[in-house]
Amino acid sequence: MTEDRYHAGPRRVGQVKEITSLANPIVKDIKALSQKKTRDETRTFMAEGLKLVIDAIELGWAIRTLVYAKSAKGKPLVEQIAARTIASGGLVLEVTEKVLSAITRRDNPQMVVGIFDQRWSALNDIHPKANETWVALDRVRDPGNLGTIIRTADAAGASGVILVGDCTDPFSMETVRATMGSLFAVPLIKTQADEFLRWKKGSGAQVVATHLAGAVDYRVIDYARRPVVLLMGNEQSGLPEDLARQADALARIPQTGRADSLNLAIATAVMLFEARRHLLSLDEAK
Ligand code: SAM
Question: Do both 106 and 67 map to the same domain?
Fold first, then answer.
C-alpha cells in the first residue's frame, strides 16, 4: 500500500487529485472494492450517485474518498461535497469517464461515487422497544433480495435488519444499488444462529418466524403486544429447524395458484406491512 492509497492507515490531510489512467494504483484499489475480501479488509464500500452520497454525508456516514467525473466539476453540489470530504480529511479524485466506468463496472456510470466506512451495530446493543419491528434474515444469499429488503424495511419504519449466519454482503455494489439509499438509514447487525437465539431470550421481543409449514395465518398475530422480530428463511432451503422451533409463532402467508412460495423480499414486505399496519397511516407519511 502506498501512502496515497485511499484506505491506508490514518486519515490524511484532504487533497484533490486528477486521475486519467486506469493503471493508477488508487484506481486499482477502488476497483478492488468490488471484491468482498477487499471490503472486509478495508471496512469500506462504494456508493454511486450524487443524491446517495449527499444523503449519506447528511446522515453522518464517514466519507473516505469522493470520486467525480471531470464533467461534474464546477457543479455547486459536487463542489460542496468535495469541500466537505476534504474538510473531514478525505481524498477527492477528479477522473475521466473511462476511469469512472472501470470503477463502477458500468458503461454509463453515475457522475459521482463515494467510498464510505462500513457501519455495523452490535446485537447486544439492540434492546427492542414497544412499536419496534426488526427483520432477521437467515442466510440470505441474493444481493438484490437483501437490498430490496433493506429498502422495504426503511419504508415500513422497521428498526433494523439482523443478518443471521452466512449472508450476502450488504455492502456489495449490487446490494447498495438495490437499497436505493436506504442502506444509510437502516441499522445492520450480523450474527450467528446460536448467538441470535441467546439474544432472543433476553430481548423481550416476540420472534415471528415465517415458514411454508406455519400453522398460523400471518394476519391473526397480535403484533402490537410486544416488539417484533420477523424471522425470514433462506431462499432455497427456508428456515432450519433449530431457528423455527424456538420462534414464538410460525406464520404463513396463505397462497393460491401454482407457486410453491413467495420470493423472500416479497414475503418480507408482506410481513412488514402487516406487522406495522397499526403504526402506519397516510397522515403520518412524509
Ligand atoms: N423452498 C423454500 C422452503 O421450503 O421454505 C422456499 C423459501 S422462500 C423462497 C424464502 C422465505 O420466504 C421462506 O423461508 C419464508 O421465510 C418466506 N416465505 C415465502 N413464502 C411464504 C409464505 N407463503 N408464508 C410464509 N413465509 C413465506
Answer: yes
Hey, what's the cell of 24? Answer: 493508477
Contact 160, 121 (CB under 8 A): yes
Give the mutation target among 210, 239, 255 for probing the ligand 1 site: most ligand atoms within 8 A of CB: 210
**Grid coordinates standing for 255?**
397462497
Say whether both 147 and 274 belong to one domain.
Answer: yes
| Å from CA of 38 to ligand 1 middle | 32
Cell of residue 13, nine digits: 490531510
- In order, the DSSP letters of 130-173 are TT-EEEEEES---HHHHHHHHHHHHHHT--EEEEESS---TTSH
C-alpha of residue 135 to centroid of ligand 1, in Å: 14
d(CA 39, CA 118): 9
**114 SS3 class:** strand
> H or E segment at 65?
strand 63-69
* Global pTM exceeds 0.90: yes
User: Do 275 and 143 share a structural domain?
Assistant: yes
How do residues 79-109 score in pLDDT, each as one tens digit?
999 999 999 999 999 999 999 999 999 999 9
Last residue of a domain, one of 71, 102, 117: 117
**How many angstroms does the Cα of residue 126 sit away from the middle of ligand 1?**
26
Residue 255 in contact with ligand 1 by CB distance below 6 A: yes
Q: Does residue 80 have its Cβ closer than 6 Å to ligand 1? A: no
Segment 211-257, tens digit of pLDDT: 999 999 999 999 999 999 999 999 999 999 999 999 999 999 999 99
Cell of 50: 450524487
d(CA 262, ligand 1 centre) in Å: 6
Q: Domain tally for the chain?
A: 2
Whether the Cβ atoms of residue 102 and residue 152 lie closer than 8 Å to each other: no
Separation CA 234–CA 213 (nearest Å): 14
